[in-house]
Amino acid sequence: MISGDVYAVLAGLLGAVASSSAKLSLGADYLKTMCDRGGMGSWSPGETPCDWLHIPLRLVCGGLLFSSNAVMWTFFSKALRHCPSSARATVTTTASNFVSSAFLGRLIFGETHAALWWVGMFLTLSGLLVLHGSRPENILQEDGKKDN
């Protein structure tokens, strides 16, 4: 059986994939530029396959956006069910999403992040470590102490 933390990490990764797909399908001409850089030769004077190929690629990215969002919400729901606390599932998903977004942004779009972004990432991951290190209190033991 898969733990809630694994579901949360996968949900964060799929959230990053969904946002990258949205940027590719709805954003500027990233796909056309990538196609042009790929060295697709010219079919006829003044026309390249990239002049029309980016349209079906945008549609594929749009489909990937919706499908990865659906699977991401499924995994996040499973993470909420299997994690000891909803805070743990939420912070793990958020941290996974940040790391995945940074990786995909650098890989696909050549983005870099400022020092403040990395400070925020460090604080988020520190909070995640605190959450993962703590143990949930047993509610039944607390109820027994109150009755005495």
Automatic annotation (TrEMBL):
Domain of life of the source: Eukaryota
Gene3D superfamilies registered for this protein in UniProt: 1.10.3730.20
The UniProt keyword set, sorted, is: Membrane, Transmembrane, Transmembrane helix
SUPFAM superfamilies from the UniProt entry: Multidrug resistance efflux transporter EmrE (SSF103481)
Entry's transmembrane regions: 115-131
Question: What InterPro entries does the database record attribute to this sequence?
Answer: EmrE-like, TMEM42
**What PANTHER family does the database record attribute to this sequence?**
TRANSMEMBRANE PROTEIN 42
**Entry protein name:** Transmembrane protein 42
Source organism: Muraenolepis orangiensis (Patagonian moray cod)
